[in-house]
Amino acid sequence: MPARDAEPFPRAVLEVLGAAADRPVFEHGTRVVTGSELLDLIARIGNGLRAKGIGPGDGVALLLGVNPEAFATILAAHAVGARVVGVRPGLTEAQVEHLLSLDIKLVVRDDDVPQAHGPELRCDGRPGDFARLIHTSGSTGVPKACAQTYAAMTNAWTARPEAWPPAIRELASRLDRYLVFGSLSSQVMFEYAVLTLTAGGTVVVADDPADAITRHRATARVITVPGLAKLVARHSPADLPTLRALLVSGSPLTTQRHREALEVLGPVLFHGYGQTETGMISMATPYDPPGTVGKPPVDLEIRDGELYVRTPGQASAYWGNPEETAEVFVDGWVRTRDLGHLDADGHLHLTGRARDVVIVNANLHHAGPIEQVIAEHPDVAEAYVVAVPDDDTGEAVHAFVVPRADRVPELEELRALVTGRLGAACAPVRVTAIAEPPVAPSGKPDKRLLTA
């Protein structure tokens, strides 16, 4: 058996819990779980999984809520070396059936978490085995299962303070009480929970995230861009005295929305950029320029405007999809299919999706730059662009805007603004005012619903 310091993920997390001892690490309602208690729970669930014949390379699907047992089960499944598939709530029956067909040996539900007494927990993951399959949000099509190896999870920085980039070190200092909700199978929710424990904080379950910052005296939570807009409209710093970190995730912030949130809520905004395939790529702290996602601490190349990255914990394939794997995972790099550039100070600016396009007269125009120009109009808080059929040009731009106040900008105003910056082909032929964008289960704006 390898020495402890040579064991793979989640050994570093287990060491954090062991060092926590009697310190509270998980809070769910009136229930408080210490580091030692959570470590004992992980060991019992790990032995329960082994008793059911689960070991390295076996597929385990987790249909679990948000509670200490769910968190412990994820870590226990990794400890025995299984290939873990988290099934988040809100999926259709067909989608759940698809996930459960991915070579799964055991399905674990909240009412049937296996536990057994046995020897001290060891971490048996094999470096080259896939440790987990994480499904993308599906914002560019059908969700894909990103396969991450045990070697990649071990190399990731989350539970290793010595490897934290500067932005994460700043964030970690604010994670005294971090809210979790929705699903711990969410990559973002789980990774920040591990970071919180490593930073000496407490993971706090919010059964209902509405006003949970105040109710749970939270210092940090994840929030989507639409959720941030609602929070900015309702609150001021005096309303949220405990808040120290809002982790904006899911989609880019416009410069104006970013600046407005900092002005209203104070220096609490951390704007992260990453993908399911890569984990975190970059993060803006409250002290970075609005409209950027900070200075990337990972290897990054810009090829014809498109971002290619290498991160310590990146996935290496799409499960069962060799064609897409070959297109995205290229010679050790991950092709993000995002567009962006670095400014003179090294800050990263995102400008759109490589495949989020409108094809006008057979010429391809990216939606991101058009949205950014429209969002500069003083009456526009947010802008979303989709392609619509056009008898003359094949496709044309349809703009959906969230008005900043009661006034909806006239179509001709937006056409003139876009034409002056990007040319007439990018100018919208229609504009529709919406109160807020429809969102996918991931919390990201769902343009497919706008198109429909």
Automatic annotation (TrEMBL):
Residue stretches making up the AMP-dependent synthetase/ligase domain: 21-108, 121-319
Membrane topology (UniProt): Peripheral membrane protein
Pathway: Lipid metabolism; fatty acid beta-oxidation
Domain AMP-binding enzyme C-terminal per the UniProt entry, residue ranges: 370-444
The EC number(s) this enzyme carries: 6.2.1.3
Protein's UniProt keywords contain Membrane: yes
Protein name: Long-chain-fatty-acid--CoA ligase
Organism: Lentzea flava
Annotated compartments: Membrane
Keywords, alphabetical: Ligase, Membrane
